[in-house]
Amino acid sequence: xxxxxxxxxxxxxxxxxxxxSYSLLDKINIAKRLDDFGVDFIEGGWPFSNAKDKELFNYFxxxxxxxxxxxxxxxxxxxxxxxxxDKNLLSLIRADTEYVTIFGKTWDLHVKEVLRxxxxxxxxxxFESVKFLTKxxxxxxxxxxxxxxxxxxxxxYALATLKAACEAGAELLVLCxxxxxxxxxxxxxxxxxxxxxxxxxxxxxxCHNDLGLALANSVACVDSGCVHIxxxxxxxxxxxxxxxxxxVMGVLQLKMNKKLISGAKMGELTHLSHYVSxxxxxxxxxxxxxxxxxxxxxxxxxxxxxxxxxxxxxxxLKPSLVGNSTRxxxxxxAGKSTLVAKAKELEFELDKKSNKAKKxxxxxxxxxxxxxxxxxxxxxxxxxxxxxxxxxxKFFELRGFRVIIEKREDNRLISEAAIKLKVNNKxxxxxxxxxxxxxxxDGALRKALTKFYPKLSQMHLTDFKVRVLDEKEGTAAKVRVxxxxxxxxxxxxxxxxxxxxxxxxxxxxxxxVEYKLLKDLKKVKK
Length: 526
Description:
This protein is α/β, with parallel strands linked by helices. The chain contains 18 helices and 16 strands.
């Protein structure tokens, strides 16, 4: 069987996700990262409809990718134009790439009700469009849009559209489940019939995820002769998204033994997934299979005890194969085994039977009874261990703070924080305005500390969450605040709890700053 090629369409299909808007530089950087990872094809976009995509292809003409084949995307010629004069097709030629991808109508419903042309005219347009591109020396991937819906409605006509593209010289036929409504056994059965009806050796698949089956459909197609899978990193795409190539590559290479990329590069899969989510400004899902923060996280005490003895007991593969790692989650469900394992993970040696282990275990239980949770606040938990295991010296002492919120006549809402600290036996009194009370407090704290600890300027807050713990108490309820922070090489989360949201935020904020300062101090000592 031929090697299965990975065709990434994050830069086009992925950009159609609600909330994603890539700049030209974003697209260039993602393309370079995909190239370095080793995907076979990168669909750069639609140069005819998007000026930004046109600039992308111009950029890579001067600075070609190392391994991946950059591919422009477009449609068959407009019914009113001959192929040789169609601006869309001409833009694909000007992209100056070895491969091009065009889509055409397969479903007679679209031909009659969307294009509003005769079925035979659509067949002619498909043939002439592919033929024009192949005569210009292009290798053409033909995407049969709505193929499975079209086949179920009118199999004879759907096959006729594929034959038109095939006879015109298409390099590969790509079967598209554009509406994402086909089931895996339908995909497999119909794909197998294509081989009989067209006598083709291979074809590609392009699935959308409207039933949550894009991965299953893509994998089901492999046994039917599919040698080319299209999708996006993290499954980004219009509506419910596309087939998630992170999962496709993980399943095919690590579970089905299909050689896609080098093992070393597969070990960068987690980093690739997180990188694309960051550039896309999308939250990375903790429960994302293979690459999520929780993909190999263990919370139950029985599970953790078993994983310590043999990871295979509760892990379907070695996390390192995809660049992830085992995590032990500290919670009320876990016992001392979890505490010991977590301490070791954070580079602290702890004997399960020691008085220190018992003391820390009781402390964690007490804090959790007050509303603290360390599952999503490993920064705070590491500080807790640090204070128990070492001679902990505070970096600063709080003498007091005040936060003022003022609504002015011009409808502007002003937040201001003033803070008094003692740092290295010196009193610091600073004030700062912010977008909100926590932002102002954060600014005042940094302003007071940065002159003593300059590296704090490298750290910034990336997320802020508030959870009401006892809703029945209404506005007097206790709240839990989670703050996520990051610097140039790490991100961490901290937690604070109080009936007062400002005080809860302060506790989480102080933990976040102290985590950064301890981390930098440890680097200096090394």
